[in-house]
Specification:
Blueprint: H1 2-12, E1 23-26, E2 42-45, H2 49-57, E3 61-63, E4 72-76, H3 81-92, E5 100-106, H4 111-119, E6 128-130, E7 133-139, E8 154-155, E9 161-162, H5 174-182, E10 190-194, H6 200-205, E11 213-218, H7 221-230, E12 236-240, E13 252-257, E14 262-263, E15 266-267, H8 270-282, E16 283-294, H9 300-306, E17 307-315, E18 319-327
């Protein structure tokens, strides 16, 4: 964890910060302790809305993209290799040659492999190992050493564009494809796609002629940017928000969703139940929820508690699709939680 490794790196001299200038911390998750850094110089870069809001609530300067120049930067590695490389390349683009760059990550997120790869390109200082991860530093090279790591759009054969690091970047998620095929010919005028990702389900929803407005709700700023490219329909409205606490401008006739069920690498069915409660709270009294989930996830009790009509309408060996209609009662949107899609 960066919270543990960062102060050790600073105390040992492994990471030596310039006395002046802004310090970018790119990709830290909510709860990460950055108190070892001078708060007035720290700029947190975080595009996942719950984590972004958590740092903003603690008084940090936060944005979704780097806004250099910086005197130093700390990159927190994400799980996806391409996204990790893009994050490093982006950080280097906002630093001057010779500036310190620290890279931190867990072993399960590929920090050892990243360390070997970078060592093959540029000199790297000693790595500090602690808490099942590592932090290491390098001085930004003079020249385009990491330009080939910059994020490049991925173009799917179905006509969608994605980016490394977003959910299901390499192809259409099978559960979402199953749900799209099970949707009825008419959904109602006002529809929400919770956890819309890069827009696959939203495009299927907009094929329904009765839809007059579609609200794409997505916490990952990068994925929502892809959705804006993929969905050019004027009926679409884009919300960079946590689905657990968003308040839409009016009650929905339908909610469609393939909710996340992981926090980091750990399974967390509570995320899906939170999405179900949020959907019940934003639906009109006659509204309907269309939900796909992994077959092992225990959502039935929550569905029956929140809706008066619940039925499994389709499925496969790995997934189940539910239609849940007539919310049992108006729900107050859930409080924001720490989630990772």
């Amino acid at each position: 964890m960066l919270s543990i490794r960062l102060p050790l790196a600073l105390d040992s001299g492994l990471l030596a910060l310039p006395e002046t200038g802004r310090i970018a911390v790119i990709g830290p998750v909510a709860g990460t302790d950055l108190s070892a850094l001078p708060r007035d110089r720290v700029h947190v870069v975080q595009g996942f809305r719950p984590d972004h809001d958590a740092f903003a609530a603690r008084g940090y300067e936060v944005s979704t993209e780097p806004a250099g120049p910086y005197a130093a930067a700390i990159v927190c590695l994400p799980r996806a290799r391409g996204a990790a490389q893009a994050r490093i390349a982006e950080a280097i683009g906002h630093l001057s040659p010779g500036a310190p760059l620290a890279i931190d990550g867990q072993k399960t997120d590929g920090v050892d492999s990243m360390l070997r790869t970078i060592r093959a390109r540029v000199p790297v200082g000693e790595a500090l190992s602690k808490a099942h991860g590592k932090i290491f530093t390098l001085q930004v090279p003079d020249g385009p050493v990491f330009q080939d790591w910059a994020a490049k759009p991925l173009h799917l054969p179905e006509g969608f564009q994605t980016l490394p690091g977003v959910f299901s970047a390499d192809g259409i998620d099978p559960a979402s494809a199953l749900l799209a095929g099970a949707l009825p010919g008419r959904l109602g005028a006002r529809v929400a796609d919770l956890g819309a990702g890069w827009g696959f389900l939203s495009r299927a929803i907009l094929e329904r002629p009765d839809v007059t407005e579609l609200h794409l709700v997505e916490a990952d700023h990068l994925a929502l940017g892809c959705a804006r490219v993929n969905i050019r329909d004027p009926r679409a409205q884009f919300h960079w928000a946590d689905a657990l606490n968003i308040v839409l401008p009016s009650r929905m006739d339908a909610v469609v969703m393939n909710p996340p069920f992981h926090t980091g690498r750990a399974a967390d069915p509570g995320l899906g139940t939170g999405f179900i409660s949020a959907a019940a709270g934003m639906l009109a009294p006659h509204g309907t929820l269309w939900l796909v989930a992994n077959r092992h996830l225990p959502y039935e009790d929550t569905l029956k508690h929140r809706f008066r009509e619940v039925e499994e309408i389709a499925g496969s060996p790995g997934f189940k699709i539910y239609r849940a209609a007539k919310p049992a009662q108006a729900q107050t949107p859930a409080r924001p939680g720490k989630r990772r899609v």
